[in-house]
Amino acid sequence: MGFLDTLLGRTKPVKPNLDVLFAIPGAAYTLEAALGMTPTGAGAVCFKEAEGGAAARTRADIRALLDLDHTTGVTISEDEYGYTWITCEQSTVDLPALMTQLHAVNATLADAGFGPSLLCTIVGFAGTTGDERRLGLVYLFKRGTVYPFAPTGAQRRDTELEMRARAEIAGELPVEPELERWFPIWSAPVP
Fold first, then answer.
1. Which of 10, 25, 169, 173 has the fewest C-beta atoms lying within 10 Å of its C-beta?
2. One Pfam annotation, family name (predicted)?
3. Helix ranges restricted to H, the chain
4. Which residues contact 4 (CB under 8 A, 6 or more apart)?
């Protein structure tokens, strides 16, 4: 960055590092051991869908790629804010395979020129038997960081669980340092 960019407050966006998604299975072991949270086998990619032929072809390519695995159910939905969610739900939990699928969705969109429209990827976790807690690890595409999100009901979240999860995964994942960027994703199909 040059002097003028600094003076005018211009910053360069962080280059996304999709390989962070492949570190989530390792962090899952930590979450299970420390907090009793296990992967649900569900994950989703959120983006603002573009219009036109290129966007339709990219969506068809993503769907064809994900349909190759018959153990994963795929749904595509739109939330109340106009964002598109591609959700993968495994019949048998295989977190490394799920992360490969979510990485492929992100990479396909980015390679097709739709990287700026990517918002986040979320992976679901749940408490063990009899434990109603839910947790999502949210990867922010534009920041290259992860944060925990623990919804407890309608517009409520378990901030204590989020802080405990942050402390546990901090050595394994690049955790988003700015808490004001830990956006609640109420409309997410996961966790």
1. 10
2. PspAB
3. 3-8, 24-35, 53-66, 95-109, 159-169
4. none
Question: In degrees, to the nearest 5, what angle opens at C-alpha 186 toward C-alphas 22 and 128?
Answer: 60
Residue 88 has pLDDT above 70, yes or no: yes
Query: Quick one: CA torsion of 179, 121, 87, 157, rounded to 10 degrees?
Result: -10
pTM above 0.85, yes or no: yes
Tokens of 145: 């960081």
Class of the CATH domain delimited by 14-181: alpha beta
Asked whether the bond before 191 is cis by omega within 30 degrees of 0, the reply is: yes
Please tell me the least confidently modeled range out of 7-11, 15-19, 83-87, 91-95. 7-11
CA distance 172 to 38: 17
Rounded Cα distance between 98 and 132, Å, is 23
Of 174, 126, 171, 120, the closest CA to residue 150 belongs to 126
